[in-house]
Amino acid sequence: MVRLVPFTLFLAAAAACAERQEPPGVSAEPLDAAVTAAVNLGEPVAAEDAAAEDVGDIVGTIRDNLPFEPTGKKLSSVAWRTWVYTDTGPKRTRYGYLRSGATLDVREKGTVRNDGCTGTWYRINPRGFVCIGKGATLDVEDPIAVATSVRPDRGRALPYIYALSKEIAPHLYFRLPDEKQMAKVEGKTLARHVFTWRERSKLDGTLDVLGEIGAPPDFLVNTKKLRKPYGVEQRLHFSVHAGRATMDSGFALQRVFEWHDRVFGLTTELDVVPLDRTKIVKPSKFHGVKLGEGEDLPVGFIQPHLVTVNVKNEQGQMQAD
């Protein structure tokens, strides 16, 4: 099932109270007992590690959480949730998680390898530890990291463009289909349906919400199958699609583009969705205002067509304005 996804990066303290799960890539096989003991004490596994020489015996512990000077080395999340931990020890808790495509600075070398991480724990800026494995990679050019690199725009009314399934739900394409493939999958009346949707969208403001519609990104044109982030539902693949979405599905669209005279959206879960099979969500125009000099909280907002505004007259009595 496709979910309506609000944000890409979450680092909330409340996430630490959630049910504990190990990070993607966790190993069921413990390492050597001496290695595990060293980690539990907050000591570096390798004394020659440069990072260990810099911070001594606090490496990998909760005290090892001061921001560091970036060196250019980065880490990218390739999972739907890549957990960020307070430390690398057995009693670690969570700060929150990174959405797929989030890229952060990491220290030049990994800090600790233990039975909690099959790869290596890396310190990220401004704080926390991430396990390199199925959920995170040091390769910022990883196809999943590139495909999900668009971040939410929190300065807008909605951080993404959102769409909802219509009664006839859209197919979830895992690559760009050609015209013959679309007609085979969706029927012979597709061309008429697409034309009708485009003309109606000019009148109802849908195209205004979508903004500038360009060409599909190169990585999508050149791929035969989109890889999905770790932790996202992996559906059965047919010729060029993975079945239909459900009627109650919602989509967060990170990119909108035109392909064979049809408008598609690429969702945050890396499904290619024909937008003529959806209803585009129009964001509310309601917004706050900047308080002027001498103005202070509390303030309230009202809908003018729902209330009567009263003002004081010269006699000090309230009357309708």
How would you portray this structure in words?
- It is a single chain.
- Residues 2-23 and 25-56 have low confidence and may be disordered.
- With 321 residues, this protein is of the alpha+beta class.
- 35% of the residues are buried.
- It has helices at residues 33-40, 50-55, 143-147, 179-186, 190-204, 206-210, 218-221; strands at 9-10, 74-77, 82-85, 94-98, 103-105, 112-114, 117-123, 129-131, 136-137, 161-165, 171-173, 241-244, 250-259, 262-267, 272-274, 278-280, 310-312, 318-320.
Question: What are the main properties of this structure?
Answer:
18 strands, 7 helices, single chain, 16% helix, three-stranded antiparallel sheet, 321 residues, 23% strand, five-stranded antiparallel sheet, alpha+beta
